[in-house]
Queue: 4 jobs
Job 1
Amino acid sequence: MNILQVNYSDLMGRIFNGYDLQISLNERGIQASQAVRDKLSHDGRVYGLGADPAIQEEIKHVEKRFSISHLLYPYGQKLKKMECYEKADIVHYHILHNNFISLLDLPLLMENKTSVWTIHDPWIVTGNCVHPLQCGRWKTGCGSCRNLEYKWFEMRQDHTRQMWEIKRQIFKQINPTIVVASRFMEDYIKASPLTGHFTDIVRIPFGVKQRMCRVWDQKEMRRKFSLPQESFVIGFRSEDDKVKGCDFLYKALENLDEKEEVSLLTVGGGEIPRKIKKKFRIRELGWVNDDKTIEQFFACCDLFVMPSLAESFGLMAVEAMAAGVPVVCFKDTAVEEMIHGPMCGMAVEYMNIEELKKALEYMVQNAEAASSKGEAGRELAAREYTYELYIERHVQLYEKLLREERGKV
């Protein structure tokens, strides 16, 4: 069995983009490699596609100028000619829409290869945006878009209907095995006129490595990060991207009833409002790239809040659970599904600031209940969201696909 993972980069998001997966497959004696646009590692089993940064920027500029998306990139053609592609029994695609593979090359790439495509977000079903949120036009052909200045793929003119139609015509020609991490994403795939014909959809949740289950001494970690020992510590990822929902959290914190001492601990690069900084003791860790610091971050927390308006899975919520930390999130998101609310946390009415505030107050004022939910989360993560199970489910999928392929001969 020879498996090729394909993604725009190897180390960025390595736990879910195929890089760690190919390492684990090789450790099991399964031949695996990865092809990427941007090679950042020194792994000899990762093959770069020879991306030229100047050409890359020029293509981005041209696509933005003509308000099109992922039609001009040459990497699909390059991939088709690579030895690692030719030798692969299965080609497993991951994030293709980060200025990487042209949509026009998908039929060519998937025509003669057993193909798996992990869908990381709803971009596949829209005319441009990654998260349609409460907009339902993705079901009827997009157009009249209210989000043309979308952060990642800005359009000068509204060509969302044209791009939606281009996707429809291309996707009619392919039928890969689709992997999703949540029922939330599976529902998108099944409901879309673009992807509703895909016949093989497999749900494989992302897995948390055993390290996240290590127990760190909370007192020691709070001393390290200069946090009060007796304070109730609320952790979250601070982001300026509106989809991450931090504005809702800040408004809830602004009105929080402070019967107990509360401190805030954050990772990420978002700007925290002055009012929040005045009201709470805050420790900002900034961008964190090492696993050890993330573990210690969760060790300090009594509660993790993930107020995202849209997530295809919610890995940080699962990491919090693995560390025994309860989670508060919004309903109607994949995070609610992951935490099995109210078992391992609390899911409140979507975008409801008052309900979010009440949930925070309940957790702060009922530390025992919060701790109990945290322990339930730890047990659930150990049962359903381990990295080992994530790998095993992929191995089983690959073996099944190869058996079916051999049965056709």
Note: The mean pLDDT is 93.
Job 2
Amino acid sequence: MHPLFLFKDLSEKSFLYGYSALDDFFGLQTEGFYRVVTEAGLVDLGMLTEQIVFPGEEKVDAIINNLSEEIIIECIDSEFPDLDRVGSFKLPFFKDIKNGSYKDPRGIYPILKKLRGSIKKGIAWDREKDEVEQIFVVESYQALAEAAILLARYKFPLSIQINIENQELLSPLLQRELLTQVLTGFWAETGLSLLMRYGFIETHWPEISSLNSTFHNKEYHPEGNVWEHTLATLPHRKTRELTISLALFLHDLGKPFSIENGGRTFDRHAQIGALRARKFLSNLGFSPTLISSVCFLIQEHMLPAAVAKLPASRVEKVLSSPLFPYLLELYRCDLSSTFQGPQGFYEACQAYRAFLRNKKNPFRNSGGKKLLRLYVD
């Protein structure tokens, strides 16, 4: 049973809120986090499930942890229509968890209706046809984070006015929520660009900010620096799954911290990046299983380029990993954002297919060599 069903047992009203309600309206899959506001008190919530915790953060009264999902709960003491004053989300939109009806206290439904068809297809809304924009005043890093989510998930037509007076940093929980929602959006690069442009990444994630001052050889990379290359990989994804999205976001994290060696500009940057990514993700509180998967992809992301040239015995362990298809997707996105063509990706796929075929054949080893003599003798 999905943990949201727990709120149907409450006598008090409970609503999906913010991007969670927008995702539901647009028919998008919410990954990692849900936002809920409820008129129930902390005592009532504590009786819902043993998986609930009370972190004591502002605007986060309780959290329900359910394997890979977290429900962030805010308690309210007023009835609708005063709900438009809860939380800090600038474009409030609600869904009643019990009866399934939507609440639109600020009248944004006409815009949502126009956006609906294009968002399901991952196509940005044509603003030239409908020049309706919402003014979004950004006075804090929290508001900047919310603007980034709206742009990354919905390409929402915002007229953003930046005036950050409240420079209070987001907690690790809220940073994890932000990164998850932005990276799993169709237009993740748009939200990330906003966060970099207005200082969020520099103040919260300085190791990520260093990508913006680390430059590539333009013979291979048209983007110029590592940050721009990172953003350029994201539109090539065939899936917005968090594992592959985090791996793309962090795959070159080691480059600012590596040195030139033997003609290699960023020597061992994959290994260095995996170590730094593990620390970065751990500090934000991502699950150990997810961290291990992402760091495996980062550490091995250079391998697909060479897998067709290496003997199968040297790469058998990596090829046997259930994560190798993810590694191929990472390689394809990485390659697609450079001047190089897709030939290397096709060769890697061919080598992987041959490996799988030979692995199933009891008369050949993983490299395709015949084993018939061994069985006969």
Note: The chain has 16 helices and nine strands.
Job 3
Amino acid sequence: MDDEVAFAPSREEARRLRDELAAFIEGPLKLQVKREATVVDRVASGVPLLGMRVWPRLVRLDGRRVRKWRSSMRELESALALDADEDEVAASAQSVVAWAAQADTSRLRTSFFDSEAGRPGQRL
């Protein structure tokens, strides 16, 4: 089964939710829950999940993913400078930007495009 994160107002509520979810997953869905990987803990520092850090009301990219995103965007810009197909590059750029938009990245995206606007050459 894929990763899942759930938030609850108390440890007791979190444990109850964990048990209910496990019963549903193992019952009607006939899937296995990795009990040793199931954690009930405070979320002060967020929960690492799929290259992001998740809090109850906030999702951020981890540092490695931020660097990878910037690198991907620069590669796409370079592809445009080398006369790559503009439609293909635009589709790829849209995909990369949409992925990043799943997290709270508005400042990252804005700062990237603002800083790129100061460079010569084509812009994404």
Note: DSSP finds four helices and three strands in the chain.
Job 4
Amino acid sequence: MSNERRDGLYLVLVGSLVFILLGAVFEGGAPAPLADFKTIYFASRTLIQQRDPFNQSEVTRIYQAERESRAPDAAKDRQIATQNIYPPNTLFLVMPFAALPSKLAGILWLIVTFASFITASFLVWNLSADYAPALSGALIGFLLATSELLAVTGNVAGIAIGLSAISVWCFVRGRLVILGIVCLAVSLVLKPHDTGLVWLYFLLAGSTQRKRALKALSVALVLSLPGFVWVWRVAPQWLHEWKVNLAAYSVHGGVNDPGLLSSGGHGLDSLISLQTIFSVFRDDPRFYNTAADLVCGPLLLVWIYLVLRRRSSPCAPWMALAAVAALTMLPIYHRQLDASLLLLAVPGCALLWSQSRIAGRIGLAITATVLMFTGISGWIVVQGLLSVVHPSPTNWGRWLAIALQVFPTPFILLATVCFYLWAFAQQSCGPATASQSRLRD
């Protein structure tokens, strides 16, 4: 092993240790630890007891009976724990945890989260190390060291994104393909709006990868069927209740409202979709959802065109996945912790760094910036800037405070999409070489 590869491996290892240690410390000290896990845990536990997991009063009975603390809980924490927004197939998949006492289930959930995401990080480094092992190790180590939100919240994104990245390694390397199919299938069941476009890439990437993507979809459907059948038997009206629950989170001032009045959209683990920017100018879902679609729709079409055009290139996976990892965050509801999917942008950055001085430096600057602002470090930077500039309560001061909290992350995500789409369009590496004359000086 070369010194550069050894250094890169050590950086990933250090990032993993920081992720585990700080994640455990922050989770233990959080006012509402594992809040997102509690949503799916108590809903799934309600289903085990043959009750309606989409009826908040039914879930509340289980929640109140099994709460670890007797102290009064905040209304927002209680809503997150008892008003379920996960579909039946996800609840069914989490049942092995829901069958356990809440404290033990939470510990095991954290272990699985750490294991899946760290394993994925080492495998993505293995893919990136072919181009720039030390640089890749630094980027992945930094991403790991700032991903504590996955542990604090216990969100399923940590497992879903980890499994999708593992499937990428399996499919690209052509090894442990069956494992890759199962991992991608489980990730689609757990959080399809995080990993769906990764699946779409493999569907479009050629005959071999298309077969693997279709097999993953088939496995996901098989895994989903029991949950839907069970819930339909226990609660035939679940679909209406589910829509009501989703709407309750998105109302003006709700936890998932992208507007300025949101009770959970800004600050630590903030919303990062484009709706947060557009809602500043007009706080109307019809406006900001349409505006986000008008921006992201053409970008997605360009991405699909480039995938179909460049799929025979050995460089195609890295540019395509780097672009789509950022694009996934923009059109619909996503939070900072979902941006851990940007792990898949590291191989593309490493490839550019190894091939072009100018494009490599630009790619590194953009990738490092987007990793900083989507991790916990971005929130620290914003809070530091707010404390330094002390925005006044005047109109301009208010706008400055809004701009610092809302604009940076969606803008840098959009810049990441545009840059990697441009780099993807410039790719000229053929089947036998990795040279890219158009990206060189």
Note: Residues 430-441 have pLDDT under 50 and may be disordered.
